[in-house]
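Thought: the user asked what Pseudouridine synthase looks like in 3D. I have the sequence; next I should run the structure tool and report back without guessing.
Action: structure_tool
Action Input:
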Amino acid sequence: MERLQKVLAHAGVASRRQAEKMITSGHIRVNGAVVTELGTKVGVHDEISVDNVPISSEAPAYILLYKPRGVISTANDEKGRKTVVDLVEDVKQRVYPVGRLDYDTSGLLLLTNDGELANRLTHPKYEVEKTYVARVTGIPSNDAMRQLRRGITVDGEAYAPAKLKLLSTDHKKQTAIVQLTLHEGKNHEVKKMLAAVGCPVEKLKREQYGFLTLKGLQTGDARNLKPEEVKELRRLTGLS
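Observation:
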């Protein structure tokens, strides 16, 4: 017997956290009855459905997407806005994003139906690095760069040290291009860190996730991960 939210995650319905929300909001039925208790356990012979659609075991899918700005990093949106799943409509499996990028942030996003791998990739314990390039208002001082490299506290929340490079500056426009590499994955992490040192983000892009890059892709493009890439992701998260 396993917890219902874990079974839903492994079946590719949603991440475990999203699955918990689906349970408590009454979207899940077990053997025909609505279940809202997070402690519910199910076995292999239990029939589980999401909004009256039975879940089924699917072949694993691993997709790398170049997310455009103006697209929601979720499987569905109550406001009817375009989601990252809409960009991979030709994928037969029910996939969902690994973590998220803000609505106005572009760049590399993974989608999968492998709940166990997704959970590990987003857990700070495994320290999978993500590299971002930001255009900021203002030019970071040497002191600001040191603060970010040491780690910074914003509104009482501590952020781990970042690897940081100042790629270019425009003194006339008073803007700069900064590259940051992080592994925590907290909400709005890059924006909060840069704003805290007086350099609010104007534009943000995630260029790398672990060893994966956007090479060969244009905005809105997607590709399946190669078997060796999936194997390396599993190795990075202790699943090899």
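Thought: the tool returned a structure. Summarizing for the user.
Final Answer: Structure for Pseudouridine synthase predicted. The chain has three domains: 2-54, 62-124+211-236, 129-209. Residues 2-54 form a domain with the Structural Genomics Hypothetical 15.5 Kd Protein In mrcA-pckA Intergenic Region; Chain A fold (CATH 3.10.290.10).
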